[in-house]
Amino acid sequence: MDYFLNEEQIMIRDLARQIAEERIVPVRAYLDEHNEYPSEIIKVLAQSDMFALFIPEEYGGLGKGCFELCLAVEELSSACLGVATTFAANALGTYPIILFGSEEQKKKYLPKIATGEKTVAFGLTEANAGSDAGGIQTTAQLQGNEYVINGTKQWITNGGEADIYTIIAITDKSKGARGASAFIVEKGASGFTFGKKENKMGIRASATRELIFDNCRVPKENIIAREGAGFIVAMKTLDQARIGVAAQGVGLAQGAFNEAVNFARKRIQFGHPIISFQAVQHMLADMAIQIEASRALTYAAARYLDSGAKDVSKESAMAKTLATDVAMKVTTDAVQVMGGAGYMKEYPVEKMMRDAKILQIYEGTNQIQRNVIGQAIIKEFAKSKG
Q1: CATH classification code of 121-228
Q2: N or C: which end of the chain has fewer CB within 10 A?
Q3: How far is the CA of 272 from the CAs of 135, 264, 278, 386, in angstroms?
Q4: What digits encode the pLDDT tens for the residues 264-291?
Q5: How far apart (Å, rounded) are the C-alpha atoms in residues 351 and 329?
Q6: How many angstroms separate the most distant Cα atoms in the chain?
Q7: Tens digit of pLDDT for each residue in 300-310?
Q8: CA–CA separation, 272 vs 102, rounded Å?
Q9: Domain ranges of the chain
Q10: Which of 57, 350, 363, 380 is catalytic?
Q11: What share of the chain is helix, strand, coil (3-state, %, to 5)?
């Protein structure tokens, strides 16, 4: 379908596609097998101004919206979700500063993020706080001109690799989730260390580590917004980022679909390419329908956010849920179309199927997304009835 991209959007998409094909595809199997962080590809993305996409122009960025970022993320995800996650997590970690940071914070951090000189991560999840953000145990106490942070964050993408971390911690336990605050913590801060690199099922090119805060001291001015705003910062950040996860789902599904179609055209059975058999055609047709529906919803949600809409929780949850459920189904079906070959590491769909699962889990499980959508429906219905 034609989504009426302008010249600049086409250029962004094509550049991301070129990087995916020329720099990511040749090394994706190696990165996956060796659990290796894609540092060289990150440099290429930085040199190509990909990190500048989501940074406002006044801070050295290109000032593009969620839609343009989705175009880039989609193309990178079609090649390797691990690399795409490494890239996208920078936007996730930066959104709190863009949305709620002070002018001083923006001037200090955003220009270096735009050039790729500094990379970013977002720290919300803990052992007892994932879907339940109110279960956060990490604390931050003001002592003089510094906040002292204690606790751990779990399964943090870019953990140990990133230079800047936006962290959610509790400043007032008596207020529950309303007592959470957001902070900027720099790598190398006193009392800030990392756990082991996790050995994951998929997205193995991305680094996932525990963040450990043991009397970690950060300047008072590193608080984002104000005390007690942490929950709002986290939720508004996730509303933006979940559309990016939807774009990951679309890209991954498209990549798997392309592999399945190419294989089905070449694989001969009973004297004919298997793509000529109706059973295979129907599977491919369903895959194509689901991908295009996911893309349409993801693009619509991104454009709705970029229009200035104040509340996109329902739309971002819808896009994330549909696109990531589709990614799981399409990658599974791609393996099925390719049969025994699809199950072998020699072909990329085996990796794509492993990678797909995380999309239904991170940045809010798809069960939580359905809760978000359901609550929005109740609220809208009640409002319409006065």
Answers
A1: 2.40.110.10
A2: C
A3: 57, 10, 12, 63
A4: 999 999 999 999 999 999 999 999 999 9
A5: 14
A6: 79
A7: 999 999 999 98
A8: 64
A9: 7-119, 121-228, 231-384
A10: 363
A11: 60, 15, 25
DSSP letter at 308? T
Q: Is the dihedral of CA 210, 38, 18, 349 positive or negative?
A: negative
Q: pLDDT digit string (tens) for 36-46?
A: 999 999 999 99
Helical pair 349-359 and 81-100, crossing angle rounded to 10 deg: 30
Q: In this predicted model, what pLDDT tens digit does every residue of 161-203 receive, in sequence order?
A: 999 999 999 999 999 889 999 999 999 999 999 999 999 999 9
Same fold, 7-119 and 231-384: no
Could you tell me how far CA 298 lies from the centroid of its own chain? Answer: 13
CA distance 327 to 353: 8
Distance CA(268)–CA(341), nearest Å, equals: 13
Do residues 162 and 187 touch, judged by C-beta distance below 8 A? yes
DSSP state of 2: -
| CA neighbor of 305 nearest in space, from 364, 366, 363, 242 | 242
In the predicted model, what is the mean pLDDT of residues 298-320?
97
Q: What is the CATH number of domain 7-119?
A: 1.10.540.10
Q: Which of 153, 143, 135, 3 is nearest to 68 (CA)?
A: 3
Architecture of the domain whose range is 231-384 = Up-down Bundle (1.20)
Active site residue 33: no
Alpha carbons 264 and 260: distance in angstroms, whole number: 6
Query: What is the rounded CA–CA span in Å between residue 334 and residue 283?
Result: 9
pLDDT of residue 385: 81
Return the HEC string of 90-142: HHHHHHHHHHHCCHHHHHHHHHHHHHCCCCEEEECCECCECCCHHHCCCEEEE
271 contact partners, CB below 8 Å, separation of at least 6: none
State how far the Cα of 11 lies from the Cα of 295, in Å rounded to an integer: 19
Output DSSP code: residue 202. S
Q: How far is CA 54 from the centre of its chain?
A: 13
Residues 42/84, Cβ–Cβ less than 8 Å: no
Token pair, residue 157, equals: 């993408």
* Residues paired with residue 321 on neighbouring β-strands, in sequence order: none
